[in-house]
Amino acid sequence: MKKIYQEQWDLFKTAYLKTFIGLFLFFIIAGFLSYFYMQNNEGLLNELMLKIYEMFEETDLLSPDLSPIPLAIGLFVNNTRASLLIAATGFIPLFLPALSILFVNGAIIGVLFAFMNINASEVSIFTMFMSGILPHGIFEIPAVILSGAIAFYLSVGIYRKLNNSEYSFRKCAANAGKTFVFVVVPLLVIAAIIEAFITPQLMDLVGLGNGM
């Protein structure tokens, strides 16, 4: 197992790092743009929040009767599907699908913060972030961003194969699969456990109700 993670660390530094940093900044910018834009568009903000609520309602993750264990499982399944979708877009070497999904995910966070800032103004944005995003987001967001880096890695691999018949895209795909299984999935497991068991308690402590 140690050898696997050493290989993954080496692969991250050589194949994913620059893309990861770029996509992370892209994700953050999407969140900030969404947040500041929604501050002056309350009608659109409420409409988007309704759609976000309906989206989560369809996953049955908003039920007040849902205990932490099934909630953690549901969060893990939902986030793993989303991350797998992002990574799989790499087989379509256009880069735009992965960028679009990451932008939407970043923008959703901005929408949530804008909504809470308007409707729960007694709680600071910093407090919202520290209690509602950081505890599980420190694992979940890197997993999502890394899925985007995997997508770019696969797309670049396709272009390399087209330009060099000796390039092994099979090895490229195998590397991507290992990264998803051994890095992305464990990060999502940890994030789901924290979001189900710890984040709601922290949100309650600062008066923001259930976790995000």
Q: How would you sum up this structure, described in words?
A:
The chain has 212 residues and is mainly α. The protein has one domain (2-205). Helices cover 82% and strands 0% of the residues. The protein is built from seven helices and no strands. The protein has helices at residues 2-39, 42-57, 68-88, 96-119, 125-163, 169-197, 199-205. It is globular.
Shape by Cα distribution: globular
Q: Poorly predicted ranges (pLDDT <50, ≥5 residues)?
A: none
Radius of gyration: 18 Å
Describe the sheet with the most strands: none
How many β-strands, per DSSP? 0
Share of residues in helices: over 70%
Order of helices and strands: HHHHHHH
Distance between the termini: 33 Å
| Category by helix and strand content | mainly alpha
Question: Can you summarize this structure?
Answer:
Keywords: Membrane, Transmembrane, Transmembrane helix. The protein has 7 helices and no strands.
Which terms would index this structure?
mainly alpha; transmembrane helix; single chain; membrane; 212 residues; SpoIIM-like; transmembrane
Helix and strand arrangement:
Blueprint lengths: L1 H38 L2 H16 L10 H21 L7 H24 L5 H39 L5 H29 L1 H7 L7
